[in-house]
Design brief:
Strand content: under 5%
Shape: globular
Number of strands: 0
Mean pLDDT: 85
Structural class: mainly alpha
Low-confidence stretches: none
Number of helices: 20
Helix content: over 70%
Length: about 400
């Protein structure tokens, strides 16, 4: 139980989950949603595109696809339905976009920390190399959403229903400061634990300063100041509670995955699995990747994403790197990406089911739509394997090509 996975969950993951909770409680989630609407609302299928952008922003700090669907979907799904998207489509688009939140740095649903621990590569490096593939994924969802909007003749939102970019930024620009500080400290070489701590302090400072400034502009009274302090204390307790609740699910998954990792190591099951995989694929890399995708889907029916990734990398990682010659980092990222498919692939599509609940549509139909819009989840890992430059680096023109 007390293995690498739980160690990572109890240290790096917890502090960043807590950071996400503080952002959420202070209103950063609402800011990301409104900012996404302001940027994309005037385009065809604007709310669907806003869902993609908002999910990228929210998911990068919440690290949970289902939480992402419920929070951003509450705003985006009703608007998509109003503009002409079918309920199942609206729920599916939100589920596909929200799934991308778990592959979007810096948090990646605990994935970045686990990959760092397993590969002994620095967390900052994992974040840097994961950003480009994540943008590719959101690019595919954005493109498919646009094509659907054009095909179905979905109109754009009227101007009066949209917030202006300046107006949104004036209300919430301070939420960008902790994220900028977080990135700057990581690049400067601070440890992830310390960076997470400073980022939480930064959220408290900017939210508190904003509230205090608003209070001073109005008619300041002692009673009003006391009420302001009481509200601040209440929000802090709420953020601590939310952070603890969000961390429990990840920690339990990691603890149970630790048991499985121990069993695989002690019994030699990993070596057996690798030889079976080699025999079934006949040395064909594409066939091996298909087998990994199927195995991740089967595991995803019973395990959360993080646990599915840990179990799968222990089982198939050695075969991918030793027998098929895939670089270690690429192998870990491919397995991590494929582990996400339980969120959007029928019959067990957790994010799809959450989208269906918000959209009021049939779960299976919504899951099929989510799977359709999340094609990048299967394509981008193939790009990583056959074009290592995307991950390992190379000349900029080659990477972009």
């Amino acid at each position: 139980i007390f293995g690498i996975p739980l160690g990572v969950a109890a240290t790096f993951v917890f502090i960043f989950v807590l950071f996400g909770a503080f952002l959420e409680v202070t209103g950063a989630g609402q800011f990301f949603i409104e900012f996404s609407y302001a940027l994309t609302g005037r385009q065809r299928g604007g709310p669907a595109k806003a869902a993609v952008l908002a999910s990228a922003g929210m998911g990068s700090i919440s690290g949970s696809a289902i939480a992402n669907v419920v929070t951003t979907g509450a705003f985006t799904i009703p608007l998509m339905k109003r503009l002409g998207y079918r309920p199942a489509q609206a729920g599916g688009i939100e589920a596909a976009a929200s799934t991308g939140g778990q592959i979007m740095p810096p948090l990646m649903g605990a994935g970045a920390f686990l990959i760092s621990e397993f590969t002994q590569v620095s967390y900052v490096h994992i974040v840097m190399i994961s950003l480009f593939p994540a943008l590719l994924y959101f690019g595919t969802v954005f493109l498919l959403v646009h094509i659907t909007a054009v095909k179905q003749g979905v109109e754009r939102l009227p101007d009066e229903a949209l917030p202006g970019i300046r107006e949104v930024l004036s209300k919430g620009w301070h939420f960008l400061l902790p994220i900028v500080l977080l990135v700057w400290l990581l690049v400067a070489g601070f440890s992830p634990m310390r960076v997470g701590f400073y980022a939480i302090i930064a959220v408290c400072v900017v939210a508190g300063a904003r509230a205090l400034l608003r209070f001073l502009v109005q008619e300041p009274t002692f009673a009003g100041f006391r009420e302001l302090c009481r509200q601040g204390l209440g929000l802090t307790v709420k953020a601590l509670e939310l952070g603890a609740r969000n961390a429990v699910a990840v920690s339990l998954a990691c603890a149970v995955a630790g048991i499985i990792v121990g069993v695989v190591g002690l019994t030699g099951l990993g070596l057996k699995f690798s030889s079976l995989m080699l025999a079934f694929s006949g040395g064909n890399l594409v066939l091996a990747l298909v087998l990994v995708a199927i195995a991740s889907l089967v595991l995803g029916m019973g395990l959360p994403v993080t646990a599915a990734y840990i179990v799968l990398i222990i089982l198939v990682g050695p075969a991918l790197t030793t027998d098929f010659g895939i670089p270690l980092l690429v192998a870990h990222l491919v397995v991590f990406w494929y582990s996400q498919d339980s969120n959007v692939t029928p019959p067990v599509a957790l994010a799809g089911f959450a989208g269906a609940a918000v959209a009021g549509s049939k779960p299976l139909e919504t899951s099929m739509q989510a799977w359709k819009f999340a094609k990048g989840l299967y394509l981008v890992p193939l790009f990583m394997v056959f074009n290592n430059a995307i991950i390992l680096g190379g000349p900029a023109p080659l990477v972009l090509w």
